[in-house]
Structures are given as structure tokens and as C-alpha cells.
Amino acid sequence: MALRHLALTSRAVAAEPGRRAKIALLADCLRELGPTEAPAAVALLSGESQRLRTGIGPASLRDLPPPAAEPVERPLGVREAERELERIAEVHGAGAQAERRRLLTGLFARATGVEQAFLRAVLVGELRQGALDAVVADAVAHAAGVPAAAVRRALMFRGSARAVAEAALTGGVPALAAFRLEVGRAVRPMLAAAAPDVASALERTGPAALEWKLDGIRVQVHRDGQDVAVFTRSLDDITARVPEVAEAALALPLRSAVLDGEAIAFGADGRPRPFQETAARTASRRDPARLRAEVPLNAYFFDLLHRDGEDLVDRPGRERWAALADAVPPGLRVAHTETGDRDEALAFFRETLALGHEGVLVKDPAAGYGAGRRGAGWIKVKPRHTLDLVVLAAEWGSGRRRGYLSNLHLGARAAGEPGLGPWVMLGKTFKGLTDETLAWQTAELLARETGRDSWTVRVRPELVVEIAFDGVQRSPRYPAGLALRFARVVRYRPDKNAAEADTVAAVREIAAAEGL
Ligand SMILES: Nc1ncnc2c1ncn2[C@@H]1O[C@H](COP(=O)(O)OP(=O)(O)OP(=O)(O)O)[C@@H](O)[C@H]1O
């Protein structure tokens, strides 16, 4: 009954509003599944389902066998289901489509209704909602009887939640402590919390460092002798696409290093080029030499996690910055100033904006480097409010936009809020779209189509779009009772996946700040 148990638990976790209760439910289930099945359950529930759904589009999920009648003679196990999905993901080459379909049909024929619903959710990535990742991590800690921080720390060094769950459940704290920073293996990046202005950021941190927030692409650079690898925010290896960044790291007087930074292109006027131009450098595999000539990148480093055999991850910010300043020349570092004075901080913020940068980061000098936003060791401050939302559907345009998908339905992550489903629509917009973006989004959205009527094409919730807006208003038409005022597209965020989109809780916070 193992898969059934997991499927029912996952349903109960989704319906449960309280975070603690969610963790307890899931931890009980993992304990009951035991050390062999539980890591597979974690792989299905967490981000690793992304990998499993490779090559499986919504079309292949249609016309599958009806649910198996209960009681089933040989019920599906969790490990068994995970293995089967892995097998499906590994099918490549000629006839792959048909073979995948055959395997999927076999799997579904053995699954009951509740199991089929769970497998579908895994396959379309519906379970993968970021917030759930954190709940899963805490549930693993609970089930294994180890501190949550030990699990999170291991996850930072090793992307695989499955491997970490296995270590926690079989070897406890010592097994988790064996996960360490390895030069050459990407670590999950530290992220920033947000504050509306520098004064409130400083209130939280006390005297802090302020740095430019460059609007480029996050780069994590690993150097081991003359070998170098560059990873994105989502841990993709882009070394071949950004040779300038690799060269910059190789020129440093170091034997081995792990550097965190941002790559960005500047125009002839010395101001940052639009984000899309920098992003195109890392998104495209085509002709890196020509792209490099057209849009040369500059690397700016802001953190040093490892230097010549020594790990700095747990050192406070001020020690890592000192090590960075020692190893990296000023031209390759972001501007950095340290102050506890509001007026000085505000002046730095204004100067940074005047140079064309996006905002500033306010960093706590005592904070170690930690994955995720927890602890708020880094706080970002930008001059205007934006949200990263997911496109749920789009309407066909008219007039000049005929033939293009134009008006976007925008959703925030419900992140487990009861009664809302995984995505909460907050409004629509067709504003801010250039002709080029219209054509691009039409193709991208059609490739993700899950159904349509005469006006609207519904899509898999995968594309993240950054939306600027003037405020939040009450609206009975939308499920959370809130809608964005004057929403407009700033840009697409190809460097983010849907699990990293903003939550409806963040929108409620903005509404509360506006007195709604
Ligand atoms: N000096 C800096 N220190 C840290 N991060 C920086 C710095 N300059 C630019 N950044 C970028 O800002 C991001 C920090 O903000 P956050 O963790 O919220 O990521 P994000 O959601 O990608 O942010 P945003 O959408 O605001 O760019 C980093 O991922 C990095 O790409």
C-alpha cells in the first residue's frame, strides 16, 4: 500500500493549512515508509520530479488506462513507482515517444484513482512548489530525529533531496555532516529577503554592508587549478556559454576557489544593458564566439566560499568579504560599503540607482553563507515593487496582435494555503510586451498548452514573468479576493522556475502594507 499511503498523505498535506501540521503528517508517513521507500518518496515530492517528467508532455497523459479496481492484486510501491518514472525519463532516441507511452500505460494500469492523481501531479510538476521543498526538508529532519539545520545544510551542498533524505534516515547527523562543499559541485545559492527601503533593511541588520544589486545573471564559479566551471542560480552548468567569466576566475591569484557573483553586459555609455541582452548570452547555446563579440559580459564577484583548500561558508560575512578583497581586484568586485548610518546608506542607494543598477543588497556582516532566504542575512531593496508570477493561460490578441497570444493570466503560488489550489490568479495583462516578446511568448505558451476555448489557451504553469504594478486592490472576481492594479510585464525570467515564483502570502503582505 506504500504509494497509496504517500498519495493520501500528499493530499492531506496540501489541504492542511498549518506548516507544523504539514511537517508532522509528512514525517509520520516517511517514518512508516522506512529508510528504503522514504528517500524515493522525497524524490517524488521534491524538485526531483522535474527530472522525472523530462519528455512527458500533457498529450502523453491523455487517454491513459482507467484507474485499477481496488483491491489491487499487487499494489504499487513508492520505490517501484520512482524507478518506473526514472526509466521513462531515460528513454531517448528513435521511437522514444511510443516507448515512453508504453511504459506509462503499464504504470497507470496498475495504479488506483488516488495513485493516478498523485502520479499526474508529480509528472506535471504540480507538487513542486518551493514551499513544499522546505516542508519536505523539515519533515525529513523530523522523521530522522535530526536538527532541521543539518538537513538544510546538507541540501545546500548536494542538490539531491533524495540523497540527503537517505543519509538522514540511515546515518543521522554524522552522515549529513559528510556533505561538504566540493570544488566543482554547485551549491544552492544564498537568496535575499526584501525590504521596502534601506532604512527598514538596516533596522533588521544593524550596521551592514551595502552593495550594488546588479541586474545580470547569477554566476557561481568553481576553480580547481586550471579547471573552471560556471553555474547559474538554478545550478545549470553554463561554462561554455560565458568564457569571459571563466577567464576572469582563471586570472585570479588562487589555486582553488568558489566565487559567487553576477555577470552583466554594459553599453557603450557605461550603463548596464537591458537584462534580456545579458540573459540571452546564457540562454543560447548558439555560436558563443559571435554572441561574446556582440554582448561581452563582465564578471563581478560579491562572495568567496572557498579559497585554496579552505572552506569559508560558515565564516561571517565580514571575514568572507575580507578574503574576497584579498583575492579579487576591485574591478572584478561589486561596489561595497559598510555603514550603520541611514543617511549614508540612502546616499549609496541613490548613487547606485543613478549608475543604472537595479537596487542594493544590505548584508549582515555576522551572517554565514546559507542557502535560501532563511535568516535574512541578505536583504534586497529596489525602488519599485515587482512580483515574479507564473503564466497560467493567455488570450488571443486582436487588431495588430491578431494571431499572437497576448493577454496573460497571472498567478502566484498558493504555497499550501487551503482552498486555493496550487496557483492563485491575481489579474491579467497585455501591457509592456514588445513585438519580439509577443512572438516569443506565443511559441513558448503554445508548447505548454493543456487546453483551450475560443479565447483562451491554458498552459502548464512554468513560465515566470516579472510584473510591475501600482498596488493591490480588493476584487471579488479573483480567488484570493485580491487583484493587481495596473499590472505590466517587465520581462520574462528564464533563470527562474515556477517553484521560485512569488506567493500569494507576499501579495497579502503588500495589501496589508497598503492598509487593505
Ligand atoms: N551584490 C549582490 N549580492 C548578492 N546578490 C546580487 C548582488 N547583485 C546582484 N545580485 C542578484 O540579486 C539576487 C538576490 O535577490 P534574490 O535572492 O531575491 O534573487 P532573485 O529572486 O533572482 O532577485 P530579483 O528577482 O530581485 O533579481 C541574486 O540572486 C543575484 O542574482
UniProtKB/TrEMBL annotation:
Magnesium is among the record's keywords: yes
SUPFAM superfamilies: ATP-dependent DNA ligase DNA-binding domain, DNA ligase/mRNA capping enzyme, catalytic domain, Nucleic acid-binding proteins
BP GO annotations: cell division; DNA biosynthetic process; DNA recombination; DNA repair; DNA replication
Annotated EC: 6.5.1.1
Keyword Ligase: yes
Similarity field: Belongs to the ATP-dependent DNA ligase family.
Protein name: DNA ligase
